[in-house]
Design goal:
Number of strands: 14
Mean pLDDT: 87
Oligomer: single chain
Shape: globular
Number of helices: 11
Strand order of the largest sheet: 3-4-12-9-14-7-6-5
Helix content: 25-40%
Low-confidence stretches: 1-21
Radius of gyration: 21 Å
Strand content: 15-25%
Largest sheet: 8 strands, mixed
C-alpha cells in the first residue's frame, strides 16, 4: 500500500488499514490544530507531571581530569553518587567550541521547518536508523511522540547523503555535523576516563574499550503542541546504548527522569551538556551504575530542539563487566553480548524501557540453552 501523510489540511480520522499502510505524521504541520490526532494520545500513567527537580551534579570535566587530588576526588565522588542513583549528570568545561554547538542546533531547526516534499527526500526507511522521521510513525501507529527527528551515523556518510538527496548546497551542513560528531567523539573518551576513575578501575580501561566505537547522532525537534498534557515529546524509555550526550537549548525545559518513584525535571544549564548512562554501560558495570527511564515533554507555546549523541561499542566487540565489578557473589548479571545483538533485539522488540536489557539477557540465556 502506498504511504500516506496526515498534514494540516486533511481529516483527523484515519482507518486502521491506512495506518498499517504506513501513514506518516508530521507534528510541525499539526501544531496549529485545536486538538491532536488520537495516535498521539498516551496513557495517564505515562503523562503524570513531574513533581521535583533532579539532583544531577554539574561536573567540571577539566577540573576532574587535570585538577589536584582533592578536586578530582570531589568531582569523581559526585559523579559516582549520581550514576549509582539515576545515571544522569551534566558536564561543563568540556572543551567543545560553543559556536559548533549553537550552529548544530540552528542548522537542525532549518531542516525541520523545510517543506514536506523536501523532508520526504530523506525519510527514514523501515528497518533503518538513518534518515528523517515524523513521530516515528514509520515504525509505530499509536502512542506517537510529538516530535520529528533526523538521525545519522558519524562515519562521513551524512555529507554525501544530504548532498545527493537535497542538493550540493546541503553538503556544508553535513560537514558541520561531521565536525560536531568528531568533537563529541573526543568528549566521549574524556568522559570514559572519568567513569573509569569513578569505578576504581583506572581511566584507561573504558577509554581503550571505546576508542573505536559506533556513534549515532539524532537531531530532535519538538513543535508547539495544542494539547501537551495528553501526549509526550519522547515517551518514557531507557537508552540501550552505552552513553548518551545531550545538547539542548538553554531556553526551554523538557527533559524529565523517573527515579525515586516519581518524575523529576532536569532543567538546562547554560553551557552544560547532559550525560546519561545507557543500558549497555549499566551491564558493563554489573548494574552498579543505573540506566533510568526518561522522557521529553512538550508545551503549547514554543518549540524545543536537542541533539542526542549515542555512544555504542564496536558492533562485534564482546561486552562484559570488568572482573573487579562482580562483587562477592562472583556472578555476572548479564551473559556476554555484542552491540550488534542488542541493537537487533531492540529493533525487533517494541519500545525501549527499563525492562529491555533484562529481557535481552533472558533472550540470550534462553537461546544459549536451546543450542
Amino acid at each position: 500500500m502506498a504511504t500516506s501523510f496526515l498534514t494540516t489540511g486533511e481529516n483527523n480520522s484515519i482507518s486502521k488499514d491506512a495506518l498499517h499502510g504506513n501513514t506518516i505524521f508530521m507534528p510541525t504541520m499539526l501544531a496549529n490544530r485545536p486538538t491532536i490526532p488520537e495516535q498521539f494520545l498516551w496513557p495517564k500513567s505515562d503523562i503524570a507531571p513531574a513533581t521535583g527537580i533532579l539532583d544531577a551534579p554539574v561536573i567540571d570535566l577539566q577540573l576532574a581530569l587535570t585538577g589536584d587530588a582533592s578536586s578530582v576526588k570531589e568531582q569523581v565522588d559526585a559523579l559516582c553518587a549520581a550514576c549509582k542513583t539515576h545515571g544522569f549528570f551534566l558536564v561543563v568545561n568540556h572543551g567543545i567550541d560553543p559556536q559548533i554547538l549553537n550552529e548544530a542546533l540552528e542548522r537542525a531547526e532549518e531542516i525541520f521547518v523545510m517543506p514536506l516534499e523536501t523532508k520526504l527526500k530523506i525519510m527514514q526507511k523501515k528497518g533503518s536508523m538513518w534518515g528523517y522521521s515524523g513521530a516515528h510513525s514509520e515504525r509505530f501507529s499509536a502512542k506517537l511522540p510529538w516530535k520529528e527527528c533526523l538521525s545519522f551515523k558519524s562515519d562521513g556518510s551524512v555529507v554525501e547523503h544530504l548532498g545527493s538527496s537535497l542538493g550540493k548546497e546541503f553538503e556544508p551542513v553535513g560537514l558541520m555535523y561531521e565536525k560536531y560528531s568528531e568533537a563529541m567523539k573526543n568528549l566521549t573518551l574524556s568522559i570514559m576516563e572519568l567513569l573509569g576513575l569513578s569505578l576504581g578501575i583506572g581511566k584507561d580501561y573504558y577509554r581503550d574499550f571505546f576508542q573505536h566505537c559506533d556513534h549515532i547522532t539524532r537531531c530532535n525537534y519538538y513543535p508547539p503542541c495544542p494539547q501537551p498534557e495528553l501526549t509526550q515529546g519522547t515517551g518514557p524509555h531507557s537508552d540501550p546504548v552505552a552513553l548518551t550526550i545531550l545538547h539542548q537549548q538553554d531556553k526551554e525545559e523538557g527533559l524529565e527522569v523517573f527515579t525515586g518513584g516519581k518524575w523529576q525535571s532536569l532543567p538546562p544549564v547554560p553551557g552544560a551538556l547532559v550525560v546519561n548512562i545507557g543500558d549497555t554501560f549499566m551491564a558493563m558495570t554489573n548494574d552498579i551504575y543505573k540506566s533510568c527511564v526518561h522522557r521529553a515533554v512538550v508545551n503549547q507555546h514554543s518549540s524545543r530542539e536537542s541533539i542526542a549523541f549515542f555512544v555504542c561499542p564496536q558492533r562485534n566487540k564482546v561486552i562484559r563487566a570488568h572482573d573487579s565489578l562482580i562483587g562477592p557473589s562472583g556472578k555476572r548479571l548479564y551473559p556476554d553480548f555484542t552491540w550488534s545483538q542488542l541493537e537487533a533485539f531492540t529493533q525487533k522488540s517494541c519500545r525501549a524501557d527499563d525492562k529491555t536489557i533484562k529481557n535481552f539477557a533472558q533472550h540470550l540465556s534462553e537461546s544459549s540453552s536451546a543450542e
